[in-house]
Queue: 2 jobs
Job 1
Amino acid sequence: MAKEIVQFRNLETHFHTPAGIVKAVDNVSFSIREGETLCVVGESGCGKSVTAMSLMRLVESPPARISGEIWFDGKDVLKLSKKEMSNLRGNDISIIFQEPMSSLNPVLTIGEQITEPLARHLLMDRKEAKKRAIELIRLVGIPRAEAIFDAYPHELSGGMRQRVMIAIALSCNPKLLIADEPTTALDVTIQAQILDLMRDLKKKFSTAIMLITHDLGVVAEMADYVVVMYAGKIIEEAPVLELFQNPQHPYTKGLLNAKPILGQKRERLYSIPGQVPNPIELEDNCHFHDRCEYCMEICRIKPPPFRAHGNDKHKTACWLYEEEREIHERSSHTG
Ligand SMILES: Nc1ncnc2c1ncn2[C@@H]1O[C@H](COP(=O)(O)OP(=O)(O)OP(=O)(O)O)[C@@H](O)[C@H]1O
Ligand SMILES: [Mg+2]
């Protein structure tokens, strides 16, 4: 089995704000294996981006207080010096954000922006870097690569800019590519092309991908493994087929019932009645209880354990399965 390249262990990223503590990421543990695409799904505000930003050490602290551990390729990320961290960001981990326009520098040409990391991290000279940059522009499927090399971001379409972002992200052959809603701002066809591109690149370079998305259609097409977050916690995780065929948590079932149509752009998934709880007033219980049709007394007062119920790779935090387990255990004792 492939090696685990990233391990989040009991990660807590809490923001200490004047209004109270926002537990944006609360005791989150999961791993990503080499060459695997792991999707993180969940509604707006559940902590997806903060999880990724914690790994990149791009969360400002204060106001954030981060505890737990994040391991990347044998390195204890939260303990690295600034310099080691900057090397890690340039060489081993790349990130693509949702808005390609705001991530590209408007006053530099595309060529300057792709060659900069090549020169800085791979120490290429100008000629070499230009050659490689043009190869990368071609690789991400942009025609007229030489002309694009000298163009400015505003001269490109949104889809082309996102491809350029991917080219920059891939320029140093990262071991991990983090893509935070990389296609949300794009139209359906371009979205499909960008996803195809990411899939090809994963195959070619066996880059691990942490893909953050609201869109279960994207998950179905891209993921090997899925982590479902709700209000700062992981409430379910499983290999993709297992999750789609046998969702366990009522929240995951609700998301799947929203029935995404493959290839169709969707708004955020708000088909489950009720709202995500206020992140400042979270109690120590099941955070989904007041939206859950199966809510029991215990759900209001105690957080459910996160564990496997049958299939080892499929874990869920839900009291329903604990009840079933108890009944099962009781009957096997008496029977
Ligand atoms: N600097 C900050 N100070 C205080 N709270 C913050 C800060 N950054 C993020 N948060 C809070 O942390 C929680 C998680 O935010 P995060 O950006 O991870 O959500 P998300 O799952 O990525 O949502 P979206 O799908 O909308 O991008 C939210 O409640 C957010 O308001
Ligand atoms: Mg986000």
Note: Residues 48-49, 180 surround magnesium ion (ligand 2) (CB under 6 Å).
Job 2
Amino acid sequence: MVAKKLSKRLKRSPSVKKLRAFASKLKAVSEFASDGYQYMKDAAPSERIAFGVTDPVHLECTLTKDYHRIEKGISLRVPKRPFGEAVANRIQHNLLAFDGIESTDEGGREFVRYSVEALEALNLWNREGERDSRLDFELATPRSGHDVDNVSRFFGSRSSVRSFDRTREIPAEILNNAIALAANSPSVCNRQSWRAHLYTDPVDVLNVLKLQNGNSAFRDEVPCVAVVTVDRRLFSGIEERNQRWVDGGLFAMSLVWGLHALGLSSCMLNWSVNADRSRALREEGNIPAVEDIIVMIAIGYADEGAKRARSSRRPLEGIARFH
Ligand SMILES: Cc1cc2nc3c(=O)[nH]c(=O)nc-3n(C[C@H](O)[C@H](O)[C@H](O)COP(=O)(O)O)c2cc1C
């Protein structure tokens, strides 16, 4: 009793509060240091110093960034002429460095072909002022827009679902289709660093979900969980350090829309955790150490009569700012 009172009083004392605040700041510094260390260790060098790169994924990063610069330049209404000398030199150099290296992962070596084609298109443009038909695309957006009623029905009918029908199996094909839809997301210089780790075995699903704090009330109902990550080796230089969450978040949202389009429901699950917890999830989910975890997504068919939270939205005036 006395000990309890003493401990309560201690907790309330200003010096103990100050000590705790200091300890929490120290913890924050160590978390930032851990994030920074991982990024500096694994990310590609900035292109200012990208000559002499030998890591195959860093070469993929640098080549992709550069071939995309040419694609962008060539797609302009009036491309500059000539342009891209430094970029072309760097691509040539990095293609030589990549020659003979085995493909990096399932992504294969497509970026090598795109780099070669971009170089050829650039030469043709700079020499002859002609556009290469391989890089000359018409816009696919319908000029009159999409059917607004359909679009607003589509956007307005998605909500986070927390009650799933466990008896309905989710065909792998549908998950793959949703991922293929999500892969249409934009990404910084087309780096496409995203990965979706999928778990459908009930034991795996539970073990993964147990590491996340926002699903305890409906964990037992979730038939599938996705962990969206990005490969940090596909980002370069310190300037791109925050881009990981932009690109990963864009992909995650597209995946949710893709699932919605295919009749599946989902609930994003925050990954607001310390580095230790990310390490635990990587271990549990067999996720490579070079991947940053962006978010988890609970996926399944909504249960009959499933409810949604009100989740009201700010009025438009609270969001849009015309200047
Ligand atoms: C990044 C992110 C993390 C989220 N984390 C959780 C979570 O841990 N648990 C949960 O039940 N809902 C989670 N949500 C769902 C939000 O509560 C929900 O999106 C929000 O209230 C809007 O509702 P709606 O998705 O139904 O439109 C998360 C949403 C996002 C975007």
Note: The chain has two domains: 47-135, 157-300.
